[in-house]
Design a protein that fits this description.
By secondary structure, the protein is α+β, with helices and mostly antiparallel strands. Helices cover 33% and strands 9% of the residues. The chain has four helices and three strands, in the order βββαααα.
Length: 125
């Protein structure tokens, strides 16, 4: 069971996310309709891909991915190397470095760090 961190109620599991995206389905989700908070999940296991996020947090998580993902999607480094470097720069344990687990403040830190064109080289001395 997934609990909404905003109101403490049990989130609802939905096989489709079309009710959140105006008819377009991006797969199953956990959501709290009272708080307009949701998170996508694994299609087979139902395991959430992070924590429930309201509108503001979803904005910051998308923004963090926009500045973080190009580093590994362009092929300059692997996705694992990108996350390992981000882990080192942020000073967090490896298990904690997943944008889907971050709050707004941590997403802001990611945006600030990753806004530098070659941020991933900062972790390699």
């Amino acid at each position: 069971m997934v609990v909404c961190s905003y109101c403490g109620r049990d989130a609802l599991y939905s096989l489709t996310s079309s009710h959140l995206y105006g008819g377009r389905d991006y797969g199953p989700v956990w959501d709290c309709r009272k708080c307009d908070a949701y998170v996508g999940c694994n299609k087979r296991t139902g395991e959430p891909h992070g924590t429930l996020a309201d509108k503001a947090l979803r904005y910051w998580r998308r923004y963090a991915h926009e500045v973080f993902d190009p580093s590994w999607k362009c092929g300059k480094i692997t996705r694992t190397e990108a996350y390992n470097t981000l882990t080192a720069i942020l000073g967090l344990p490896n298990a904690c470095v997943h944008i889907g687990l971050f709050d707004e403040e941590m997403c802001r830190r990611v945006v600030k760090v990753c806004s530098h064109s070659a941020w991933w080289s900062l972790g390699h001395k």
